[in-house]
Batch of 3 targets.
Target 1
Amino acid sequence: MRSPQILSCLVIAVMGSLMMNILIHDGMDHGVGFDVFLAGAGDPWQLFINNDLVTGLWFMCGWIVLRERGGRVMDVVAWVWMVLWWGNIIVAAYVLRAAWQSGGDWSCFFMGRHAGPSRQAVPSFLVRTGSGLAAIAVALWLARSIAAVRWAGIPTTGYLLGFLPIILTLLLLAFPDRPAEQR
């Protein structure tokens, strides 16, 4: 079970450093990449690459929907929305979460609650509190960012579509869906 965790951490580190590069050298004041993604549709190769990425992300969303089936609908909505907006850094975060929840059991890793009696872990008080505080911080940053672009159409849409699922996911982590045996 260490392989998915190591690979996920590596992907998160690489994508996180690339995101820091964007923040330092370009910023997000033009819609969190939404305009760049749309502009690339004019080039046939970029359109192919964009569609290849999105197709792979849809496959991942299918696994998330199947794995989370029977749980809170908002969990599924938040994860799918984030995967489709933020891409493989969220895929890596979900794989890391699934590995953590599974406790080393591959069937639980792939199937979640459908693998049999639930052995899924519930986040600690520290993780839940940190997630709640992070949700508040992201919401404040989002409000400041939208105010900075004066509600301009594409940047505001990019901000809202990009950061609302992050806030939702952080809130869902702060208030986790406990397995039925723990309710």
Target 2
Amino acid sequence: MIEDRTNLWIVHPIAEWLLPWALRARIHPNLVSLTGMGCGLAAGWCYFHWREPGFVVAGLLFMIAWHVFDGLDGKVARASGKQSALGRLMDGLCDYVVFISVYLALVLSFDDWRPVLALAVASGAAHAVQSAWYEGERDSWKRRARGEFALPTQRQAHFWGERLYNWAESLLSSGGRATDSALAAAPGKQQAYLDGTAPMLRGLALFSANNRTLGIALAAFIGNPLIFWYWELLALSFLALLMAMLLRRRERASVAR
């Protein structure tokens, strides 16, 4: 009900097709994550040459391959019973490594790269916040769809990076606690909540990694990668604030019926 259409039509079908082969080969899910990261690094090398359209196409294809492996690692982990806190963290870190490599490659492709770096860092910070919020809202909706109306207890963090990740995830998911309380008090309102908020959750796909991948390629094809960073920093930040406010309003309305 809330899945990004590019996942439904492209990424997930390819990952499902690869899953039996990965299981037969007994490939560890962390290796799948690292393979995806390798595709992302290759995309970064291609985007360093963004002024040549062929490299932009190659960069886009490598990033699509990363999305496929990014979806495949979780499927392999669940099917093989190899889910772990380390795997969850590695999956998230690989995602950031991919975008950092692409951003850095684009920055270094400019002769006067220092002001471009400042823009990319600011855009990347906005990206991190937007993505954490987007994933948190999706996870909360899916949790409520399962009839779970309380935030899950975080696993004990083993080092500072995981503690920081858990803290940010908890902070950004706190806005929906009133919705959880209302649904826990009146579970019969669950379906009204799901039906009322699903269209907005689908709209949040604007903040998905898939759409950022397409945005980077489009800006490079236009001939100015800076357009993407301005879009991410200014337009997407404004839209995230607006959509967060509208989502909370829709949640309140759906559980008040």
Target 3
Amino acid sequence: MKKIVILSLIISIFFSLTSCEGNLEPTVYNRLSTSNFPKTEEDCRVIVTGVYAQFHFDNAWYRYSCDPQSRLVLGEIGTDELYMPWSWCQVPNQNFDFNPGYDLFSNFYQKMVPSVTKATYALTVLESSQLADTTLKQRYIAEIKCCRAMWMYDLEGFYGPPPVVLDPQAVLNPTKLYFPPRLSESEYLTFLENDLLSSMDVLPIKYSSNSDYGRFTKGAAASILMKLYMRHKEFSKAEGISRKIMTYGYKLESDYSKIWDISNEMNAELIFVLPAPEENNTSSNIYRAHVLPSDWVSLSGAKVVAYDGYRIPWNVYDKFDKDDSRLSTLIKDYYVKSGNVVKLVDGRKTGRLKKGAIPLKYGEDPSSDGLFCGNDIVLIRYADILLLRAEALNELNGPNQESVDLINQIRDRAFKNDPAKRVSLTQFISKESLRDYILQERQFELLFEGERREDLIRQGKYIQFAKERGVTGAEDYKVRYPMPSSVIIEGQGNIKQNDGY
């Protein structure tokens, strides 16, 4: 299986700037410096792999995995489609108790803001390097820009534009006290737009070697940019960039349940993934353990680790058409052992699944120990882009045939090409009616993939839906999480907390 081997990058890019990154004393490594590193192609490769390593950190419970402090779960908190059995994270999720001193909301920030700094440093030293292969040099620069852009996109979605280090001079002088400014939303968008557009100019549509699978491509860069345009309601730009993505060779996988299978990796629907090895590794996929119930039995004899974790509430499960094949990844019935007999039980009727169905999109890894699995972690896929394009076209033109056709591409897969399950343009009498339909279709298609919170906020429904559920703590300013209290304290008055906190 193809894998990018993620190496620890123990060089100067691990300087920690003073100010708001949780460490007031810089760590200085004196064996390598900008005067002697990087010089060779291998030096530059190590820098780039070190930047990619920031997706993982030092264990499988990293910020792009699936623990409660991950990008996935932060993208679900406060929505209708998440229940967690651990009170330390379920209570804030359920009650909108977003405390700026709470690890649940601060750990993603505390990990990924320094990662942006490290990417800025890596860009600075790469741009000044004398690498003979200028084409490779430009590709490496584009890859790092994309890593940084993705982290900045996610940080903005959770906290608004954060104070991140983007100044090359500041990053080269880590001993100097520096408080990066908080850019305005328009400034933040422009910065990321320029980085992503320049990256698209040099990145390949596809790499020639499977060993490069998991690196940023033209399509991955464009997809981040499209999602950014949608967030900022730049619908014309989103429509234009999605048209480009549709020329890059992506297509929907024929069987929805197989998108995440270890035997079907590198399928044509996947736009950006984090490759995962099959053994205990910082890059391993620990998703299954976080969702399986404690009495789960594998019919194949595969090892099982079960934390009895995330559930999709039954009221969301009940929204699905019973013929929708996407229900195959939302488990109600499963096998348990009673004495020496293995039997299938209805988890809902028996009360074994009190809080909801099991969101089980990642299939078994036969070689796994039950915890650390080798299924590549899917972060962006083509179905997401098609539905966003349908939304952008509706925002520009109102109900239109292309938006309907895009929705039907998704529904044809879900209902095995049953024409009775398709939608027609005549069903939508207004922009609002089609907008609401797309929002619901996105929930069916992207359930528990970390997109629901973003979708609801973009449509102005995040606080509204919470209030309709009776959440008294759902106040308008909570469309953003608070920045960590430590950041505000270390900022010495130079960094302003998000409004309301």
